[in-house]
Amino acid sequence: MKTVKKAIITDAGFASRYLPITKTIPKAMVPIGAKPAMQLCVEECVAAGIEEIIIVATPNTMAKEIYDNYFHDPATNVQNLLEKQGKSERFEPVKEVLNFPKITVIEQDANLPYGNGSPIVSAKEYVKDEEAFVVLYSDDLIFGNSDVKTLIETYQKNEDAKAVIAVTEMPESVWNKYGMVALKENGTLSHIVEKPKTPDLSPSNLTSYGRYLLTPEVFEYLVPSNTGLDGELWTVDAITRLTEIGDVLVARSNGTWMTTGDPKNYFMTLLKYVLENTDYADEVREVCYNESKGEN
Q: For residues 36 and 8, what is the distance between their CA atoms, to the nearest angstrom?
């Protein structure tokens, strides 16, 4: 059985919808509870047995330094202070971060065209000799399960597949916001329709989002000259080309997909996390209930 050892997590855009905060910190460092969104992606990889993670950061910013600091700096001054105060237990979450598998932080190649495929190309040297690798977009979070694990398990049942994409069912009202999946008769990927303008143009109710298992053959199509819509380098365009040389499997998510791509959806994601994972969830529910009733 083939093993999948490496994952690429991308956070290489400027996140202009989040300004001014993203002038200073990368978007995936916004907190979800007491953890940044990037850490939740790392934990999803760890749960699937990934041994090495490559984080691709925005070029010409402080992003690489911030990620390196977060995942690698031992923060001994903080640890020593907490020990003196008798609060050593508060440092345990930091130890968990420092004990993650190998994390390498790189910058996206600034010479590549704009598009969500460029961070993957930037990490090519780290994964080109692998049987397969996983890609995560850090503004897509999965609650309740590990999509990375689902992708790997699906691939291991058919190791001749050229790729595996994660999908989930979405209501008709939002089909125009996402990539909608068309299937072949055998259930594998045919193509993806990006943001269909009307429901009748959508081939299904299945949405593709930022969780992929890819084989190095994708780099034959994910090249700077192969730009698509709006002159961008799109990952899904390269994945669609892979369907011409073999099967691209479609794996339904066993979790709940939430996006942090804009401030509104970020808040919805944060709220879901708080309500499901914190000891103050009931207090938040009470505040929300009183606000809905117009009480102070």
A: 17
The boundaries of the domain holding residue 112 are 6-292
Q: What is the pLDDT of residue 258?
A: 93
Structurally, the chain folds into a number of domains equal to 1
User: In angstroms, how far is CA 121 from the centroid of its own chain?
Assistant: 16
Report yes or no: 257 and 142 within 8 Å, Cβ to Cβ: yes
Report in angstroms the alpha-carbon separations of 289 from 274, 275, 279: 15, 13, 18
Q: Does 296 have pLDDT greater than 60?
A: no
pLDDT, tens digit (0-9, with 9 covering 90-100), for 176-204: 988 899 999 899 999 999 889 999 999 99
* pTM, 2 dp: 0.93
Cα 158 from Cα 248, distance rounded (Å): 10
Distance from C-alpha of 194 to C-alpha of 138, rounded to nearest angstrom = 20
Q: According to the model, what pLDDT value does residue 149 have?
A: 96
* Parallel/antiparallel/unpaired status of strands 133-137 and 6-11: parallel
In single-letter form, the type of residue at position 4 comes to V
d(CA 79, CA 94): 9
Does residue 281 register a pLDDT over 90?
Answer: yes
What are the CA-CA distances from residue 75 to residues 57, 93, 98 (Å)?
A: 22, 12, 10
Would residue 271 count as lying in a domain?
Answer: yes
The answer to whether position 20 is within a domain reads yes
Residue 83's pLDDT is 96
